[in-house]
Specification:
disordered N terminus, alpha/beta, two-stranded antiparallel sheet, TIM Barrel, 9 helices, about 30% helix, binds iron/sulfur cluster
């Protein structure tokens, strides 16, 4: 075992409170296959690996005594789920819901419909939309052609209906955070959309090479401290380790593990970021 691994194995993280419940609606179904996506997409694009509503109902029931602030609907692309609207309504009965989407399904009509759904609930819907750069060509070079405009289009429609939006930037080009925020604010200002610092979340991209230096930083704000993810296969620590045996926490929420060993390259990225990679600031609710 290398020195790096020895050091990593020594670190653990214990769930303090389950505040963020991630639900993976599909593991591999996405209408876009971005070049640098961490998902190993099957050759067959029509994979139908959707989670069942009953499984979600069961998880919500089993976590009824937990202090959940937000349920996150994730995927691959969660809005490809055939029962997406019913799942959204179901989750909105329990807590705020954050939809982590590529934005491709959000046209004006959909945004209007989602506002109606939100208005029927006591909770809010928040959107997390992904970008890799503020320059269209650089962004699309990493994601897929047209994805930049797609996010702009989605933001425009969601903004029209006063949804809270978080632009989730994976800093693939390793630019300064200040520069990214400045450029994004300008782009949206030109579209008459006010984007605040709170609407921009920047994550450094994960690296495969383990570096001891990075592991020595404090792990004060990790998703695994306050979150778990439900998938068709069971409970896992976080979206990075969904369906990965190293992140497996149990079969369901009736009996799941609270302790996780920080042993993967993903954990290095989390520790290095010094902020939760997936959960959003609970103060926005
Ligand atoms: S990848 Fe991050 S959130 Fe997941 S277990 Fe590792 S440190 Fe925790």
């Amino acid at each position: 075992m290398s020195t790096e691994n020895t050091l990593l194995c020594a670190k653990t993280c214990t769930l303090e409170e389950l505040n963020n419940l991630f639900i993976e609606l599909t593991e591999k179904n996405c209408n876009q296959h971005c070049k640098q996506c961490y998902i190993n997409f099957p050759l067959n694009k029509k994979v139908k690996d959707f989670i069942s509503i009953d499984k979600i109902k069961e998880a919500i029931k089993q976590t009824e005594n937990e202090k959940i602030n937000c349920i996150y609907l994730t995927g691959a692309e969660p809005m490809t789920h055939p029962d997406f609207n019913s799942i959204l309504r179901l989750c909105l009965k329990r807590s705020n819901v954050c939809i982590c989407t590529n934005g491709s399904f959000i046209n004006e009509k959909k945004a209007r419909f989602l506002k109606k759904v939100e208005n029927e609930s006591d909770y809010s819907i928040i959107f997390q939309l992904p970008l890799n750069h503020y320059n269209e060509i650089k962004n699309d070079d990493i994601r897929s052609r047209g994805s930049f405009r797609q996010v702009l289009h989605a933001v425009k429609n969601l903004n029209k209906y006063d949804f809270y939006i978080i632009l989730c930037i994976t800093n693939s080009y390793k630019e300064s955070k200040k520069q990214i925020v400045f450029e994004l604010k300008n782009i949206f200002k030109n579209l008459d959309i006010i984007i605040d610092d709170k609407n921009i979340k920047i994550n450094e991209c994960w690296e495969k090479t383990v570096n001891i230096e990075k592991t020595e930083e404090n792990n004060e704000k990790l998703d695994c401290q306050n979150s778990r993810i439900l998938t068709t296969k069971g409970i896992y620590t976080c979206p990075f380790l969904a369906n990965d045996y190293r992140g497996r926490m149990g079969t369901d929420f009736s009996n799941y593990s609270k302790k996780v060993q920080l042993e993967t390259d993903f954990c290095i990225t989390c520790i290095k970021n010094k902020e939760q990679m997936f959960a959003i600031d609970k103060n926005i609710f």
